[in-house]
Structure formats: structure tokens, C-alpha cells
Amino acid sequence: MAQVPEPADDVKAVRQKFYDRLARLDMAPLWESLHALVLKQPASPARPFIWRYQDQVRDLLMEAGQLITAREAERRVLILENPGLKGTSSITRSLYAGLQLVMPGDVAPAHRHAQNALRFIVEGENAYTAVNGERTLMRPGDLVLTPSWHWHDHGNDTDQPMVWLDGLDIPTVAFFDASFAEAGNDETQAQVRPIGDSDRRFGNNLAPVDWKPATQSSPIFNYPYERTRETLETMAQADAPDACHGHKLRYVNPASGGHVTPTMAAFMQLLPSGFASAAYRSTDGTVFSVVEGEGEGESVIGGERFRWKPKDVFVVPSWTEVTHRADTDAVLFSFSDRSVQEKLGLWRERRADA
Which of 249, 86, 104, 76 is nearest to 166 (CA)? Predict the structure, then answer.
């Protein structure tokens, strides 16, 4: 493109007076800002970062458990705020993440909201989430959904603390100024369906004959880790690992074949022992939670090296190059805004092996 000559000082002065008149009418010249509005490629202000669970975060969560009750807090959560997005309560520009603690005897009271939410279980076993009158018991590695405008509450009837990673589309809903929320009349919902009802109805490639989905989210709200891990192992035994992802699964909405919520996608991948991935980048900023790995693994994100262990959480911003390496077999859960990006025709990827 030919270089545009610099305007003379007198031309600049005349233009500035014009711009000042526009500003007084809440207008502005596009040509002065077009380069910053329509970028040649994504340039997210979010930064790669890692939250180390055993070394840092867990003690702070347990301290929070002594400082405030679940009833006072409504949700006792430590927000994972991206250091490049200070003051936004966001982990990427479109996603929120936090670590929630439910102590023995706690009840996190029933509410519902426009935001979609997912819970990835990090620590503890057999606390419950109830969604629209059905409870599910949760174990490490399970993915539990609470879709938009579904009543949900949490409780812990065990003798051990329960911790999970919350993922919500709070920034996306805020962008559209579309947030609604409502508190329940009771702390816990009346159980109108037995535990496991939704899984038995929809989790076997079957559905009631006249059933029509009322939402774009999955009718299954607990995807147990035991099944996910079994599927990963089956892939590993039969297939060579993908150069960028190892063996990677996408959680599926059985009603549509699409992602589990209309705004967020979720994934699980196995990195075989000694695996080193090819470089990869995509437009969906992605949050990872380390599930398994006896030794340490590492990810190089935007040229910055992060060593990780089980239960650590790290973030790969949009269009930031990432590679993974595993000392031993490692399993990573992740979620991103790929679901909504695909609907809008925005999602792109770039593979070094392509």
C-alpha cells in the first residue's frame, strides 16, 4: 500500500477544529480510528497466566471458608481475574472463571440467572448440585451444567470440602446488556425428579418420543469423568494423537449434536506420556484445568513457559500461540467461547502442522 503523505500543519489545524465540532455533537471521524477498530488480526489485552492450586489457591479458599458463610456470600467464590483485564472480573474478554468452595453442611441457596454456567469438579466428592428440581452428586473431573434461567442450588452433606471451577458467560451477557437474575423462595429446591433422571432419559442416544428441547443447552447436566476418561483411553488405544491436541474430546449436547451451551464449549484432552504438541492458535480464548498428570507438564503460551500440576488453572488468550508437553500421561479440561463464535461465523484456528 502506498504511503499516505503527512498533511500540512494548516490542514491539520482545520481538521482538528472540524473534529472538535463533531465531538460536541457526540460524533467522531471513522478515518481517525478505523485502524484500531478493525484489526488485521486479534490483539487481546488478556494475558497468559496460571493459578497454582496446591501451592497458592487452596489455602486461600479454605481461609475464605472460615471468614464468610455460604449463606452470607450466596456463592463463596474466588474470582480468577486475568492480569491484563484488571477490574473486569473476567478471565478472557468474554468469559468469567472462579473457584467455588462449599464446606461440609453448607447450602448455596437457589437462584437463577440469564448467564449460562458450567462447573468442573476439582476436589471433594458427593456434594450435590440441583438443577430445576433434580439433584446430581459430583465427583472430581465431572462437568456439571447449570444452563441459562435454570434454578440451581448446591449443598454439601459430606464431611469434606468441595471445590469446583466455575465458568460463566458473564462478560458476554453484559456486552449485550441482557442480564437477569432471581433469587429462590427457598434455600433448596424441592426434588421433583430422582437423581440421574436426565442422564437416563437423554444419555443413551435416546429421548422421549415427543420431547422437544426448550433451550439450546444440553438436557444432560452431569457428564461424569469416569465415562469421559474411558472414551479418552479408547481413543488412545486405537488412534494416533492429533499433532496439536493429543486425544481431544468435545462435550456434546445430545439434542443437537452441538456444544453443551449456546455460548460456551467444553473439552477434555489426553496428552500421552512424552507428547509434545505442534503450535496451535485459535480465536477462542480458553481456560484450562489440569485433571491428571503424575509428573509436571508444561504449556508455552505466547512464548511464556508455564509448568503445571493437577488442579492448576491456566488461560490461553485469543489468537495466542500455545504448545503443550507432558512428562507422563496428562489430562486437561478446558472451556471457551467457541460455541458462540461458531454461531456468529467468527471462529478461526491456525495449526503449525497444516
Answer: 76
86-102 tens-digit pLDDT: 999 999 999 999 999 99
Per 3-state DSSP, what percentage of the chain is helix, strand, and coil (rounded to 5)? 20, 30, 45
Q: Are 214 and 255 in contact (CB under 8 A)?
A: no
Q: How far apart are CA 330 and CA 349, in angstroms?
A: 23
Which residue type, as a one-letter code, is found at position 352? A
Q: Give me the amino acid identity at 224.
A: P
* Predicted confidence (pLDDT) per residue in 251-289, tens digit: 999 999 999 999 999 999 999 999 999 999 999 999 999
Please give the angle made by the CA atoms of 164, 151 and 227, to the nearest 5 degrees.
45
| Cα separation values, 286 from 26, 91, 97, 140, 324, Å | 36, 9, 11, 20, 14
Q: How many residues in the chain?
A: 354
CA-wise closest residue to 310 among 325, 326, 324, 294: 294
Return all residues near 39 (Cβ < 8 A) that are at least 6 apart.
Answer: none
Neighbouring CB atoms inside 10 A of 108's CB total: 24
Place of cell 442422564: 199
What's the whole-model pTM score?
0.95
**Distance, CA of 271 to CA of 245 (rounded, Å):** 7
CA gap 256, 262 in Å, rounded: 11
**Sole residue written with cell 467522531:** 28
Residue identified by cell 497458592 is 56
Q: How far apart are CA 106 and CA 127, in angstroms?
A: 10
User: Which contiguous run of DSSP H or E holds residue 72?
Assistant: helix 70-73
Distant-in-sequence, close-in-space partners of 190: CB < 8 Å, separation ≥ 6: 133
Angle at alpha carbon of residue 340, lines to 337 and 341, rounded to 5° = 80
C-beta of residue 92 within 8 angstroms of C-beta of residue 84: no
**Local structure of 229: helix, strand or coil:** helix
> What are the DSSP calls for 14-65, one per residue?
HHHHHHHHHHHTT---GGGTHHHHS-SS---S---EEE-IIIIIHHHHHHHH
